[in-house]
Amino acid sequence: MVRGEAWIIKHAADAAGLGEPLVLEEFGVSLNASRGVSTRQPATSRIRWLDAVLQSGGAGDQFWLLTSRADAGSFYPDHDGYRVMWNADVSNLAASLAKLLSAHAKAMADG
Question: Is the pTM of this model over 0.90?
């Protein structure tokens, strides 16, 4: 187990011992195709973090930032380089990560 996962599991146990919920907030993956940063490597540890929250009984997590199309049909602007778009377009590097995040959200809700 790597350090991030161990940290989450320990804090989930501490929160449970105090009768408080654990919510892992605002963590993300910087995606920048022009700099050669892909979703595969940095996202792998984040997916393990999601699994750790789910398996340790965490109350929730908030990935920064999963977006879809806004009312006007455009995507939320990528102000900080952490936007992951829910978009089925094959040119979208983050499509598989967006699908994993969506499946995780469903698993947390079903939990």
Answer: no
